[in-house]
Every structure is written in structure tokens, then in C-alpha cells.
Request: fold
Amino acid sequence: MKKIKEFAAALLVIALLLAVWWGTVVYTASVIFPTPGQVVSGALGLAADGSLWMHIGSSLFRVGTGFLLAVLFAVPLGLWMGWVKGAYFTLNPLFQILRPISPIAWIPIAILWFGVGNASPIFLIFISSVFPMIVQTVTGVHTIERRYLRAAENFGVSRARLFRQVVIPAVLPQVIVGMRIGLGVAWLVVVAAEMIALRSGLGYLIMDSRNAGNRYDLVIAGMAIIGLIGLLLDGSMRLLEKHRLVRWRYAH
Reply:
């Protein structure tokens, strides 16, 4: 019942905002800014001719590829840095220098290195999502209570088994947090990259609609679709947080 009330409240707020939007456009008699109905109509037109699904598929492909590469790189590296002090003190300063650089600032470098194909946004997604996952993974290793490690060592547990059965399960919650942050940033970055360098994807759809006859109904539709997909991606990460291997940390 509580969740139903919360969901109903969220829908009510969205409905009120849509009503205000619609009323404002009608009241001002705007000939450029669309009503919600016009936005829905434009989106349905794109869906009918198949171009909407092409743009969504292109964006999701780039995000999925870059994000997967970041996970495969960041999680093992973060575990190693968290477990080996020498690796941490050697590599952490470099990552702390690179981490604050905006992924958008890498766009000229990405175009110079990889051209204007899919490789550029995939590289940008990798750069944007790899650092949050490294930081969270290292933090997860460093926050493991040492008494659990000492207890395992007292029972003669090998380092390989200790790492596999104690460290990795304990770090999983932090890894999921890093993945959630990284995926959110990656979704933002791919849209920005598509606005500049590509001819497909939701970012390109927004810019092309603006430049090709001021189709602001499609511009708003693209923005709304980006938001909805972002919500679904974040929800998928939240489902991982509820997995039994992540809800607890040390007992197994």
C-alpha cells in the first residue's frame, strides 16, 4: 500500500507538470514550443518509421560496449589496488589527476584518436565510467574489517581463498555503487558525444531535429526518451543491489 501511494504521488506530480506545460503553451499561443500532445505525436511518428528504434539502439550499443569494457578493466584493477599497497600508492595519484577531468573535455582527443565513428563515444563512455568504479572498488577493499581477515588467516585460509571468499563478497556492494554511478555518467556522455560527432543516436536526433526545421516536438521527445531510458538503467542497477550476494557483506 505504501509503495502504491508513493507511485501515485509521483504520477500526480508528473501530471501536474504536464498540465502546466500544456496550459502555458496554449495560453502563450507559441508557434515553436510544442504541447505534450505534439511531443507524443512526433515520437509516435519516429517509432512508426523505425528511426526512433535505430537511434535508441545506437545509443544503447555505445553505452553497453563502453560500460562493459570499463567494468572489465576497473573492477580487477580496483581489487588489486585495494589489496596491494604498492599498487595503490603507485597508481592512485595518477587516477586522482585524471578523475576530475570532465569526460566532455576528452571529446576533441577522442575524435583525433578514433575519428567520428563508434569508437570515439565508446572511448568517452569508458573514460567517464571507469574512474567511479575504480574508486568504489578500492574503497570497498579498504573498508573491510580487518578482524575478518585475521580470523581467516588464523584458520589457515590461503590468500587466494581469502580473496575469493571474503574480499570479493565484501566488496560487491561498493562495486555495484560504482557501476550505478558510472552507468549514469556514461548515459550523459554518450548523448553529448552524439550531438557533436555522429549521425545516429538520441543525441544526434536532438541536434538534427533542431537544425532541420526547428522540430522542437522531436527535440523534447528525444529528451524525454533519454530521461526514461536513464531511469530504466538506474533501476536495473538498483535490482542488483537487492541480490542476496550484495545485501550482506561478510557472512557466508
User: Anything to note?
Assistant: The mean pLDDT is 85. The longest helix spans residues 159-197. The radius of gyration is 23 Å. The chain has eleven helices and no strands.
